[in-house]
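Practice problem: predict the structure.
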Amino acid sequence: MKLISWNIDSINAALTGKSRRANQTREVLSRIAMEDADIIGFQETKLPSTGPTEVHLEHLRGLFPDYEITWRSSQSPARKSYAGTMYLYKTRLHPIVTKPVIGAPDTLDNEGRIITLEFPDIFITEVYTPNAGTELKRLKQRQIWDEKYREYLLFLNNHKPVIASGDFNVARDPIDLAHPEDNFQTAGYTDEERKGFSQILQAGFTDSFRFLYPDKRDVYSWWDQRIYSSKRENDGWRIDYWLVSDQLEDKIIDSTILESGTRRDHAPIMLEISLPY
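Answer:
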């Protein structure tokens, strides 16, 4: 089974935009389509509360003609056209789709951050983890989110194994970012966020990339789009993950970061795993 996850940073901009960045994003979407994955998850879709328009769906079906589409958008009282997630899955698959509420603080449960696909023997779920924000203004809420999200994954894992992907907005170890010494206690590399993510792993989950490549350096999934040279100089962070229940470790075939050209921000991540679907 082949699965892809990507923080796309606006479905609308990707599908209908005219900018250079929109063109770069469409090139990445075409690259994803060529992989012919079984399941594709998108985060930070930034769709309105009503979801994708018919124009959006037409574009998506043109790129991905053999897929069903499900989404979750930010709803009031949360910000409009903010956060959001989406799944595309092959039409031969027939998962039960759920959009869980995990008891997160503030408006986090209203921001469309989690979708879960349930299959007979496994859960596949994606997450767009909240960013701690400028001056760490949302760090307290983020810490509670991490706790509630861990509890949710444990709930799933008590019933059947789990594959969880998405933008987790944290680099766990110094090896996971280019300049750890310059980013200590900045959003995505605080002690609190790293601890929260580590506790997820300690609860029975494996970082598939590090499982296969424990010492691999200079491999990142995000480069700051505000810094023109970040991609060219590979000044990046690995903050996007494929996690699997520990009992699935021996089924991992590969865990990679797909090429995203000159486009800064997130790159897609791909998991290949031996599953009967």
